[in-house]
Amino acid sequence: xxxxxxxxxxxxxxxxxxxxxxxxxxAHLNDVLKSRPNDPVVYYQIAWTHDALGKESxxxxxxxxxxxxxxxxxxxxxxxxxxxxxxxxxxxYKKSEHVLKDGxxxxxxxxxxxxxxxxxxxxxxxxxLAMEIxxxxxxxxxxxxxxxxxxxxxxxYSDKLNQKFE
Length: 166
Hints:
Structural class: mainly alpha
CATH class of the largest domain: Mainly Alpha
Distance between the termini: 69 Å
């Protein structure tokens, strides 16, 4: 298949997903997989669709395969978030932590990866670290005027949650 065909199958996938036809999307992707068995983007799209269908266990294998096959760019960034989040949903918190940390290292400007990492840290009973990450993200990204007004204080206290000041 040429580039035009690649764009076509992705456009069809996006259209089907937007229509809410997730089972049709998955059937379409399984057909695409027959002609593109070595394309990591196909596996990424399959993983995404499994996630949307609530089939997290099926999503894991497809995410892992997509990453192992050399997925790159925005798709790799999304796969790290998807796989890390899916592991967390399945209760595999250590795997979630590892995947999300790899994602953060590869894509240090992705705030969503850090927020999902914070959720995982909460599940791992690392509440102080989870709060620190979330407070820093809140102070950094909020457009709320009151949050902006106190962003320096939020940043200062983010890693001093149990410290008392006299």
